[in-house]
Amino acid sequence: MNDAPVELKDLVKTYVDDRGRPTFTAVKGINLDIKPGEFMVLVGPSGCGKSTTLRMIAGLERVTSGTISIGGKVVNHLEPKDRGIAMVFQSYALYPHMNIFKNMAYALEVAKKPKDSITQTVARTAKALLLDQMMERKPQALSGGQRQRVALGRAIVRSPNVFLFDEPLSNLDAKMRVQMRSEISRLHVELGTTMIYVTHDQVEAMTMGDRICVMRDGLIMQVADPLTLYMKPDNLFVAAFIGSPPMNLLKGKVQKREDGLYFVENAEKDQLVLPLKGHLQELASKYLDKEIVFGIRPEHIGDKPRNSSTMPIALTVDIAEPMGAESIVYLKTGSGYLIARIPGERLYRLGEKITVHLNLEKAALFDPDTQEVIG
Ligand code: ATP
After folding, report:
1. Is the CB of 15 under 6 A from ligand 1?
2. Position 1 confidence tier, pLDDT thresholds 50, 70, 90
3. pLDDT grade, residue 358 (50/70/90)?
4. Which of 104, 123, 343, 358 minimizes the number of CB atoms within 10 Å of its CB?
5. Atom of ligand 1 nearest to the CA of 51
6. Integer angstrom CA distances of residue 244 from 38, 73, 339
């Protein structure tokens, strides 16, 4: 079975010092079901516990409480080598004195596989990874991307039930990262093996994951496919973490006016006053005169009206970043700024007053106390 499901149940990790005294709880009771053959990405800021989780699955870190099952079998007490996993790290950890062939064949030789089958497996894998023309080279004669492909190849030849990746691309330059990203995605499609991939890079998470598990402070904030995570974040943390530039989040209050409910920004002057459209009217009704957070993605602030829900508003340009096909424009509001992603090749000047159109139907509302989405 090389598409084993992986199940984490009430998983806790408390690190202890030399005398066994608890020092830090890095994982605080997480539950996660990874389906057979799924590409699951664990993402979150530095220190959120994603590497600790992966290392517990690998068997490199003891579990404090809870269970880890691979292929339906609890593996808490199994040695890493008996878990049917292969791990690819950020540092390639290749053997410097061995050539590519030897590096890839080593684990199979240790497992005493027949020589012919080793040669065949390594040759097939090397070809798939475009390494077959350089099998005699040693790691120091390879580029970063080639080294990472050898490390991948070494994991693939072992035909594991689950691949574990810990930030495997962070040592590569930007162009190589993009290339290796698609290589790993292609491999996943070809092999159909369950893959668990740790990264702090939300672009990597969005482009590679079947599903993404967003972590913060040892807890899971949301697990969903990339689009759901982007379109329907469960809470303020996910709304701010996924998306670049992130979702605009304005603090304010819900106010009743003659023609319905409005969001009114908390600010001394120049406050934004935005009508709540469609289903947001009903959702906001429980928050009358209460604090609320209004969220809108930068691409829903454009230079043209889209439909009857878009509202024109004149704001002053604070910063403008021309990107070529679009501009990222920071517009001043009473309490801070709104970031707009405006298509087109026009340049925006600092201090210029422009009219933007907010697609208010696409907005989201959050409860500042619970930090959760309303609705
Ligand atoms: P990064 O992206 O920076 O690697 P991460 O999300 O992978 O972050 P972990 O490496 O899992 O984070 O660490 C989670 C928390 O546990 C961090 O606050 C870290 O300082 C702490 N930690 C890690 N190892 C130990 C240890 N041996 N003893 C005590 N605390 C530890």
Report:
1. yes
2. low
3. very high
4. 343
5. 7
6. 25, 39, 10
Atom of ligand 1 nearest to the CA of 53: 11
Q: Report the SS3 class of residue 368.
A: coil
The fold of the 6-241 domain, in CATH, is Rossmann fold (3.40.50)
CB 84 within 8 A of CB 4: yes
Ligand 1 atom 9 nearest Cα: 49
Beta pairing class for 301-302 and 353-359 = antiparallel
Q: 49 CB less than 6 Å from ligand 1?
A: yes
CATH 3.40.50.300 intervals, the chain: 6-241
Per-residue pLDDT band for 193 (boundaries 50, 70, 90) equals: very high
- Helix/strand/coil percent split, the chain, to 5: 30, 35, 35
Segment 267-281, tens digit of pLDDT: 999 899 999 988 899
Amino acid at 367: D
* Among 27, 41, 48, residue to substitute to test ligand 1 (most atoms within 8 Å of Cβ): 48
